[in-house]
Specification:
- The protein has a single domain, classed as 3-Layer(aba) Sandwich (Rossmann fold).
- The protein is 35% helix and 16% strand.
- It is globular and about 60 Å long.
- The N terminus is likely disordered.
Length: 292
Amino acid sequence: MQLSLSPSFASHVPPKGQLLKWVGNKQRFAAEICKFFPDRINRFYEPFLGSGAVLATYRPDIGIGADVFSPLIDIWKELAKNPESLKNWYSERRDRIIEEDKKDVYSSVLASFNRKHNGPDFLFLTRSCYGGIIRFRKSDGYMSTPCGPHNPISSDSFSKRVNEWHQRMKNNTFVHSDFEQMFIDAKRGDLIYCDPPYVDSQGILYGAQLFQLSRLMKSIDEAKSRGVKIVLSIDGTKKSGNHLCDVEIPDNLFETEAVIKVGKSMLKRFQIEGQKAHDEEVTDRLLLTYAL
């Protein structure tokens, strides 16, 4: 069964602003995604946590957010347990822009991060890099995204966002883990929401180069057989440039499909070096292992 949603629907209320600036962020559409979640679940898992937008909007009683990138999980753990410390992580770097050139500050923090990956540097970089595009070189893990054209939000504005996001995320558990372990941990009555890297349109982004969709499909099949419900966001765009990228989905794995329009592609703008991206509307397919 296929459904189509209007971007105006809101059954849950997302945060007012993004905590992390993140390409592919689902915050504007998180309320629509949550509409398709079951009325009752035991635990909620989000194994590709990224910006945390869906978890922050859904606000489950028991939530587990996971990601393979440890600096990202360090940020979410700090938000949940030590929000004042997270504010300091940001202000110590952002406030340098008052006296120093923004690009010099960015280069300094980027160099520090590339010497040793860490949450405090990564937090500032997500807010100040171009379009929130976190791009790593596959050869050595070096983050290569340039500085964005605009100043990152002020420390005061970020502090206010931390206050709101802390209230939404403080009761969740955050885990540095591969997605497969989350599927193993989930039990009957649990819900898993997946927003994995799009291997065609997001191949330059962190995590995408090593991600294998076939592994995810196998995990979904195994978890479904145990009574776990799964919702998968996946690229609904049929072409990336001139390349046909229709995703092959195993037969009978999903029972419901929805289509959500998510707007223009910031990643495409980055790939064409800031030129206007015409006719680059992006859609997401939302696939459910259960009937509504």
